[in-house]
Amino acid sequence: MKCPFCGEDNTRVIDSRPADDNSSIRRRRECDDCGKRFTTYEKVETIPLIIIKKGKIRETYDRKKLESGVIKSCHKRPIPVEEIEKCIDRIETKIFNLEQKEVESTVIGEIVMDELKALDQVAYVRFASVYREFKDVNTFMDELKKLLN
After folding, report:
1. C-beta of residue 61 within 8 angstroms of C-beta of residue 50
2. Cβ-proximal residues to 16 (8 Å cutoff; 6+ apart), any chain
């Protein structure tokens, strides 16, 4: 495993335990060259999941895209990184628990919105404004009213 700090591949595992979701292994590693520590996760390799986008275009599932959307929604919010990671893990678990080879992006969007609504209302509205493609202020206000009720 390469060290993310110095790039050397001379690292060793100093601690290993199940991750919070019990479906992966969390490993603490230490670089023998620079001495810095970092965390890696080991997961079971799964069959590639295909996402069906709005234009019926198909692409393989990419966790980085999910992370990017959630992190952008939570930008400058008082949410600990650990909570954001747990939220992303819950979303991913729900997606894979659908046990489908192909999932429409709208299904994933709704799962993300449900999780963000529970995590942070501002992050939820930010995500919803992009996901639902609000056309004007009235559409935005309608979503806010739903949130307040």
Report:
1. yes
2. 25, 26, 27, 28
Strand partners, 51: 59, 103
pLDDT tens by residue, 16-65: 999 877 778 999 999 999 999 999 988 877 678 999 998 999 999 999 99
Question: Are 107 and 50 in contact, with CB atoms under 8 Å apart?
Answer: no
- Residue 105 to residue 74: CA distance in whole angstroms: 20
Complete DSSP assignment for the chain: ---TTT--S-EEEEEEEE-TTSSEEEEEEEETTT--EEEEEEE---PPPEEE-TTS-EEE--HHHHHHHHHHHTTTSS--HHHHHHHHHHHHHHHHHT--SEEEHHHHHHHHHHHHHHH-HHHHHHHHHHHTT--SHHHHHHHHHHHH-
| Cα 79-83-86 angle, rounded to 5 deg | 155
How buried is residue 116: exposed, middle or buried, by Cβ count under 10 Å (0-12/13-18/19+)?
buried
Evaluate whether 61 touches 26 at the Cβ level (below 8 Å).
Answer: no
